[in-house]
Amino acid sequence: MAIIVRVDRVLADRKMTLTELSRRVDITLANLSNLKTGKAKAIRFSTLDAICEALDCQPGDILEHSPYDEQT
Amino acid sequence: MSQEAELVQTRKMARTIGKIVNFLFWLLVIASVASVCGMVYFAFLPAERLADAAQAGNLSFVGPRWFTFRVPLESLTGDAIKTIIFVAVSMLMISVLSWSLILRQLRSILKTVERNRPFTEENARRISVIGWILVVGSVVFSVAKAIAGEVAVRALDVVPGMTVTFQWDVSLALAGFCLLILAGVFRYGAYLQEEYDTTV
């Protein structure tokens, strides 16, 4: 997919683990892991809102568009 | 009632119906085996033994709806009885095998309902299998019934020139077509379920 999820980068900046984020946003670790590895097809606004709230960032910090990456 | 409570109730109902369907399935499997054994047994049974049993009054027929007229005792020759029993057991075998196949699919569908995952490609395929069995079965059952009736009438030869009419079971075919449409609905449901599962 041309959308790249940069949660791992923001997590590293905040020195936060995926487990802690999962606990804060109340989303299962499996679902967050799917999001991080690019296995998820879509993201809800509510999820995006919760992640941005927990990481104190903007949606643009988490999601990135790459026109050259056509990998599904 | 809340949605969660409704789902719990549906799962409970699926479990109960599943147990009944499971019991009926194994009953039909036993009946299938019995009908095959019966066919083999009657195929090798000497016709004279059946005629002797009929003359002695030890043999009685309970005719199905499509075959209800009295048969005079002199018509009950050994070969006629053998033919009729063979035809009746064959009919039973076709019916029992089809229904056991339907119940097998239904059992698998109910298991997925119990696990709260009914919208899958497999279930869509199972429903379409049941639908095709009913559609094809409506023709096959009707043809088999007509052939069985014709063979029985010819074997007994009670009314000269008597013919058996063919009647297509429309309601069975209609139920089959409805299930084929439902299979399409389930296919779409499976697609939506996949979309939902991959949305975070």
Helical segment tally of chain B? 5
The average pLDDT score of chain A comes to 88
Unreliable parts of chain A: none
SS-based structural class of chain A? mainly alpha
| Biggest sheet architecture of chain A | 2 strands, antiparallel
Structural class by secondary-structure content of chain B: mainly alpha
Strand order of the largest sheet of chain A: 1-2
Summarize the structure.
The complex is a heterodimer of chains A (72) and B (200). In chain A, 54% of the residues lie in helices and 8% in strands.
Descriptive keywords:
heterodimer; A: 72 residues; mainly alpha; 434 Repressor (Amino-terminal Domain); globular; B: 200 residues; elongated
Could you characterize what this model shows?
The complex is a heterodimer of chains A (72) and B (200). Chain A has a single domain (3-65), classed as 434 Repressor (Amino-terminal Domain) (Orthogonal Bundle). Chain A is built from five helices and two strands, in the order E-H-H-H-H-H-E. Chain A has helices spanning 7-14, 18-25, 29-36, 45-55, 59-62; strands at 3-5, 63-65. In chain A, strands 1-2 form a two-stranded antiparallel sheet. Chain B has one domain. Chain B has helices at residues 3-44, 47-55, 78-114, 121-156, 170-197. In chain B, helix 2 packs across helix 3 and helix 3 packs antiparallel against helix 4 (121-156). The radius of gyration of chain B is 23 Å and the shape is elongated. At the A-B interface, helix 3 of A face loops of B.
Question: Topology, pairings included?
Answer:
The complex is a heterodimer of chains A (72) and B (200).
Chain A (H helix, E strand, L loop, with lengths): L2 E3 L1 H8 L3 H8 L3 H8 L8 H11 L3 H4 E3 L7
Chain B lengths: L2 H42 L2 H9 L22 H37 L6 H36 L13 H28 L3
Helix pairs in contact in B: 1-3, 2-3, 3-4, 4-5
